[in-house]
Amino acid sequence: MNPEERHIFSVLVENRFGVLARVAGLFSGRGFNIDSLNVAETHDSSISQITLVTHGDAQIIEQIYHHLNRLIDVIEVTDLSTAGTHVERELVLIKVATEDPQKRTEVLQVAEVFRGRVIDMKPASLVLEITGDEGKLKAAIDIFNTYGILELARTGKIAMLRGSDF
Amino acid sequence: MELSGAQILVDSLKREGVEYIFGVNGGAAMPIFDALYGETELKLIPMRHEQGASHAADGYARATGDVGVALATSGPGATNLVTGIATAYMDSIPMVAITGQVFTHYIGSDAFQECDVIGVTRPICKHSYLIKDCDEIADVVAEAFHLAKTGKPGPVVIDIAKDAQLHEALFKYPETVDIRSYKPQVHGDPAQIGKAAALIKEAKRPMLYAGGGVVLANASEELRQLTLKTQIPITVTLMGLGAFPETHPLAMEMPGMHGSCCANYAFTDADLVIAIGARFDDRVTGDLNKFAPNAKKIHIDIDASCIGKNVPVDVPIVGDAKKVLTELNKQVGIADIDPWRAQIQEWKQKYPFEYEQKADKVMPQYVIEQIYEHYSDAIVVADVGQHQMWAAQYFKFTEPRQWLNSGGLGTMGFSLPAAIGAQLGCPDKTVVNINGDGSYIMTIQELVPAVTMKLPLKIFIINNMYLGMVRQWQELFHGKRYSAVDYHDNPDFALLAQAFGATGLRVEHTEDVVPALQKAQGITDGPVVIDFIVDEEENVFPMVPAGAGLGDVIRGLS
Question: I need a surface site. Which of A35, A38, A54, A93 has the fewest CB within 10 A?
Fold first, then answer.
């Protein structure tokens, strides 16, 4: 068994119904894995961008690249993990229990460490917004878990090549 | 003037030069069938089952190289097309499958005869379209035909809501098609072609391995030039048979599970394999760890995802076989490989396809040999099973598009409707359908349109009263436990043919084989069915057992 690698693909597709199903079907039909997936319209409303994180050995990653390219609605595929250096971000919303005012103060202090923003506050809970790479979000979630996370929602990864690496 | 969506569809198909459309009528497609009524330029061929319609469109495409068109209604009509669409997809056949869909406002409501056709066919077609607005029809048809026949060909599905068929719009057919996300790479990289030529020059034991892609790319002429110029031995796969004449001394015949020992030994000993439009299918390679272990590999294919999928490749060349071979042919000369050629000839002579004539039995291989003697120029449409392998082994194909079969999906029931499509596409050719008793009865209903149209099909059933290939595996690998393969309860196919209005003959003795074939040659006003009652337990050999290496081929039972 060859070593497995994680890859981030940036896929530009026609902004039409059914395209996501074609991409997802490619993965499910061939037993490839999707670790995270993010889809949204770009500044050109006829094009959507899919950021897709997957893993597999080199041969599987190459197959994924070619099969994505083979889909008729796919305009461009970039393997960000090999095409150059890239930046990546995820966003997480965390609702933390804060019945106790003492606890609330602590949670707010921790949030500051992670440059989190409070976007809702109720007597018994507050909602934090934190952005960052995967490692930072994991660290934040681990800490807030000790205070009691009531609810968590997280985007998939979005990423792009740095500066002139395109 | 505004036209109905259905009329726009028909006019668009005419703009694409469609001659025939194979279909079965039904509720959600009625406006389209209505627009086809009385149409003479684009002829509607009513089939008896939608599966037959899709295979007939496929057979037409395989025989002519043009796009085949099938038409069905929504729901069950569409799902019946599915086997034919998947068959075409696996063999990369250019086809457009059109289905009626329920009214737009019913879509998603579980309406009568509603089915998510786009969802069902997504993994088995090259692309698909759902049309809800009649304004889109002309553009979609143009795109669908462009996609079906360019790049790696394949079936495209167009699902049209009934209201889009009924509403009216102006007909304006696009002069050109430009899809920004679809630019197939047809020209091979010159540097890679140079590397391939250098490898060919150095090789001591090279072999050519050509597949169905050569036929699809209409590159048989270029393949012949390459073979003759280099004098490198060649094996042509089941899907490519006829791309190079099997009668030529350099031809090693088909490789793989039931291929020639020569081709399989050649793979095992070769130091260079030059694959052209072939995909290293498991039925060709056997155990991948033992496949061509000493050989460097050059792989020419239009589909980048096909290269390196099963076998690591040293020189990948993405491009159209015709264009790549044209360039490669400029850079190669005769190969200095006399000892290798001598080895190939030795294997060829030592291990030809052979069988034992059993007393009082009609041997299936003998029937195929005699079909070849009497119909060597015919288009042969085979079904799937033992008869298919015997036909591939004992009929010596010399021209591309002379041999049609469902190689990838292995669809039983393919051949009779496909033969109808082939005969309509090639009216001046004799079309021979070599069928099995199991596969014939799967789509036997299509004998009706063949009789109605008086098509002079030669339908030869190699009848061993079993689902023969499965029975063979049961004999070899399941202790002769013949589960669900005994077809002795099939009807008398000769009598049944007569009931359909065709000529039906039954042959039970070896001495009657040739007279029956001669008699069939004289029947030109409709189909003739000959039911050859052959040895029940004859097996297909050679055979590479599933999971074994090609070098471990079993030459015969004895």
Answer: A35
